[in-house]
């Protein structure tokens, strides 16, 4: 599943389509009103966490790539039928595959809490801290994946953040000292931007310290691996240097 930084890359790649007018639209998504799309210009392309948003005059389109979604710009995926394909009067096309696409009525600013997006200029760490303090019994491995708190954070970021701040994934939010809770919030945003930088340079995996790794680089002992929390996502951690609170 693409995480927030990967969606920012898509937004940057799709930025040239702003102002272009849709000429043709088709696909196998049953939720997209294809007949209403031709003639509509793209007002903006935006992201909120793991949502890619195409703003149109009548409504917006929300693309969620789920676990295995993908996209192609100005080309098509061999042997695959797109969930949505958009061709433009000025040239070019956007194609989306194996994803969920839904219309969003009304203003995007009314539909989304931008301050919850770890990649957004509007991000507010104080708001994230307030939400965390209201969920004291939640495991930190689940809290980091809660999109109402850390929109855009996915499993890679979760594992890397917890390793970097030396917190065991089965710690509860309420048990964390105030300084450690603030560190969690700060690192979630900081690592997300590092993720973006490394992803653009095609070196992201080279910087992983915990995710998918077998040996702890600090302690030189085997990592533990399990599907933890309510989310049951793959988690990698060191029992020696990641403290359980």
UniProtKB/TrEMBL annotation:
<dbReference type="GO" id="GO:0003906">
    <property type="term" value="F:DNA-(apurinic or apyrimidinic site) endonuclease activity"/>
</dbReference>
<dbReference type="InterPro" id="IPR012319">
    <property type="entry name" value="FPG_cat"/>
</dbReference>
<keyword id="KW-0227">DNA damage</keyword>
<dbReference type="GO" id="GO:0003684">
    <property type="term" value="F:damaged DNA binding"/>
</dbReference>
<dbReference type="GO" id="GO:0006284">
    <property type="term" value="P:base-excision repair"/>
</dbReference>
<keyword id="KW-0238">DNA-binding</keyword>
<keyword id="KW-0456">Lyase</keyword>
<comment type="similarity">
    <text>Belongs to the FPG family.</text>
</comment>
<keyword id="KW-0326">Glycosidase</keyword>
<keyword id="KW-0540">Nuclease</keyword>
<dbReference type="InterPro" id="IPR010979">
    <property type="entry name" value="Ribosomal_uS13-like_H2TH"/>
</dbReference>
<dbReference type="Pfam" id="PF01149">
    <property type="entry name" value="Fapy_DNA_glyco"/>
</dbReference>
<dbReference type="InterPro" id="IPR015886">
    <property type="entry name" value="H2TH_FPG"/>
</dbReference>
<dbReference type="InterPro" id="IPR035937">
    <property type="entry name" value="FPG_N"/>
</dbReference>
<dbReference type="GO" id="GO:0008534">
    <property type="term" value="F:oxidized purine nucleobase lesion DNA N-glycosylase activity"/>
</dbReference>
<protein>
    <submittedName>
        <fullName>Endonuclease</fullName>
    </submittedName>
</protein>
<keyword id="KW-0378">Hydrolase</keyword>
<feature type="domain" description="Formamidopyrimidine-DNA glycosylase catalytic">
    <location>
        <begin position="2"/>
        <end position="91"/>
    </location>
</feature>
<keyword id="KW-0255">Endonuclease</keyword>
<keyword id="KW-0511">Multifunctional enzyme</keyword>
<keyword id="KW-0234">DNA repair</keyword>
<dbReference type="Pfam" id="PF06831">
    <property type="entry name" value="H2TH"/>
</dbReference>
<dbReference type="GO" id="GO:0008270">
    <property type="term" value="F:zinc ion binding"/>
</dbReference>
<dbReference type="GO" id="GO:0016829">
    <property type="term" value="F:lyase activity"/>
</dbReference>
């Amino acid at each position: 599943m693409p995480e927030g930084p990967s969606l920012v890359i898509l937004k940057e790649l799709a930025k040239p389509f702003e102002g272009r007018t849709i000429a043709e639209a088709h696909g196998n998504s049953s939720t997209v009103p294809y007949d209403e799309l031709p003639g509509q210009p793209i007002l903006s392309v935006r992201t909120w966490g793991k949502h890619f948003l195409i703003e149109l005059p009548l409504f917006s389109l929300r693309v969620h790539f789920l676990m295995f979604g993908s996209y192609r710009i100005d080309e098509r995926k061999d042997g695959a039928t797109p969930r949505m394909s958009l061709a433009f009067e000025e040239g070019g096309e956007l194609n989306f595959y194996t994803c969920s696409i839904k219309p969003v009525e009304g203003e995007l600013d009314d539909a989304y809490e931008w301050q919850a997006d770890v990649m957004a200029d509007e991000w507010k760490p104080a708001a994230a801290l307030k939400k965390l303090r209201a969920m004291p019994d939640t495991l930190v491995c689940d809290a980091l994946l809660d999109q109402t708190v850390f929109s855009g954070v996915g499993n890679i970021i979760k594992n890397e953040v917890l390793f970097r701040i030396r917190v065991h994934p089965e710690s509860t939010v309420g048990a964390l000292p105030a300084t450690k809770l603030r560190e969690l919030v700060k690192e979630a945003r900081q690592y997300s931007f590092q993720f973006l930088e490394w992803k653009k340079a095609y070196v992201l995996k080279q910087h992983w310290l915990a995710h998918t790794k077998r040996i702890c680089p600090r302690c030189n002992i085997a990592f533990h691996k399990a599907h933890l929390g309510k989310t049951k996502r793959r988690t990698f951690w060191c029992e020696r240097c990641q403290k359980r609170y």
